[in-house]
Amino acid sequence: MSSKLQKKKQYFLGEFEIIIKDYSNLYSFFQTKKEFRKAIGSINFLIKYDFLTNRLSLERLSIDNKTNDNVQRVIEQFNQENKFLKNRTDLRNLFNFIAEEL
Q: Which residues are paired to 12 by β-bridges?
């Protein structure tokens, strides 16, 4: 196999939108502290999966079509630390870190 072929990147990019009908149920599911529960109508996010390194990263996140520098920093830190969402607890922790920055 040529070295040119080995160096090519292979990614899956996926953009998703989650419409929130009852944000209080969302916060209850993730056990978010009441002081951080702000109204949310939709969550948009872009993920990138690298098939060669088997790594998933969250590239962009917007809430109600608005971006937030503090939220982007949480995402960048998450990606830099190469954390994995192995279970619901990991997902809950990431969600709550993001909710605190809204």
A: 49
